[in-house]
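ARCHIVE CARD
SHELF: 3
SLOT: left
DATA:
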Amino acid sequence: MEDYNTETTLADHNAFWEDMQHAVRFRVIINHDIKKITFQNGLPSSVEDMMEVLKQAFSITTDIGLQYKDTDFDDFFTLTSTADLKDKDTLKVVHVPPGIIMTTVPQECKPDTSDMSSVDELLSLDSQDSLIPSPPPTERQNLWPAIFPIPSFSYNTEMALRQGNEKFLKDGTPLTSPSVKSDILERLAEAMFSYTAYPNDPQRAAVAQALIEKHPCLREPGSFNGCYGWQQSLKYKCANYRSKLKAHGNPELLINTMKHKQEGDRKPAKNIKKPRKSEVNYLPPHPAGETDDSLETVRLELVAVSRTKDNAHMINDMMSRTYSCRRREVVGQSMQVAEFKERWPALFDPLQVNKLAQ
């Protein structure tokens, strides 16, 4: 009987240690709280699965990101793979501010246009709710990314960054070069403009964080997050970059100048027209070689063509050519739907509406 009990105890003991070999424990920082979690069956296969487990375990209802503490740098880095983790590592839960991650939701049904004329007098068309076909492929195509891709800089800057990262890894010395910083800010402002002309605070913070993660030598000693100075510099550099493009006649920026504002809105910070619902091509320039007069001629031809049959291909071409013209009317004039329908009858054709809903 004693031999049986001894064997049973040893079996239980071995099973316990076998389970412990698979268990992985983490120290988790959530805001100002420090918690502990144990994964009894090993690590989840992906970062997304791990975030879901943490959200359920700690009753987190908002979108989050994860950072882990790297032992080489003694600092937190964005977690991109669970393979980077080991037992007793420290994780930090980062709450994702609204506006950084933006997604589009596909429509599951097509709008009913059978009784559209009955609501013409009740609705007004403004810059936030518009029915516009897909823009030409030469214009802005992408929404703000979940993880901002840091672009390549000039050859001299890339060389300085490589040497700076090596030195920072060796003795922790940051890179402080005005010429390098100037080139970095200029290139980042250009890259940010490819997604939006008016980046907000969370977006600028995301760019600054991505910058110091890719190039640790750019971390700012004494900054509470290592990149607050970069965030502020990006704010002013983006404004300066917009001023340069405004001088070249960029319509997305000219619409907010005092000259182009309506009588009651002529104040610098009043009624700034910018994307608010993740619009990609909010106010694109005219196609190459086109002017207001030439597009007005196309619009008049489009009105005539829309009254005939079997011309869907021609209408699509004309609608694509006049996309920028419609956007200027929608954003700048905020006319009534009835008036807009009179000027652009093809836009309310079921074929065009169905195309928008796809």
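SLOT: right
DATA:
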Amino acid sequence: MQNLLKFIQIIIILISIFYDVKAKKVCYEMLDDDINDGLISVGDMILTPEQYASLFGNSSSMRRHGLAGSFRRWPNGVVPVVFEDGFKHSFLKRIKSAMRYIMRHSCVVFDWTTKITKKQDHILVKSGNRCASLIGCVKKGAQNLILNSECHKGNIIHELLHALGLLHMHTAKDRDDWILIVWDNIKDEAKFNFKKYTKQVSMFDTSYDYGSIMHYGINSFSKDQSSPTIIPLKASKKEKLGQREKMSEGDIIRLNRMYECYKEDDDQTYYYDEDEMMVDDFSSF
């Protein structure tokens, strides 16, 4: 009987190790052409060395690699898009729906109909083991947007906003005024996802946003999947950290100010509908 119990314990340990390794592989997986370009993976964000130095480096590197130069906007707000072959029609429809959602709330245009050359800057939507994107328009030619069937519509919007230049909310330089990071509850291999920016990133005259689609959830990367890793210090009961349902009002304002969409400082040009819901299932990460 004791031998049987030991055998069962060994099997359980082996299974847990297998899934832990598998999870790490998914978390850190990057495409070969991204690795060859010397890019750095920080969770679902793929950064150039200049961007990484701007966000997390020392003061000298920040002066050398200013944020304004590291996070390029797409010219005129037009983002050429090419889809890798092999996506199922239903998933391709989901991706385009996420793009249309952003276009409906901004002057940004995702263009997947115009033929382009390989040398032209564009997003190449590729299949991978996670949801991940570069930040802004940073590469010459194709830059990868990695998606798979587990990426729900809200996740795709999150990654598209990265591709447009928006960063995570919970790592803002002033985040300690708004949230408490519970480091002891975070998986060791995921702690880099909570590293705070060393330089203030422009919020385009908006405040810290608990409801942002770019914010992590309360138990994101929790060791036991339930203990909190982020505790809000000022949030109301209405605000849901880590929601992947829709862009917050702040998200819409920041995106439109970034791309200078508003006319004569009219922040109502692309309005926020509090009652708007997207018909899809969602998950935060």
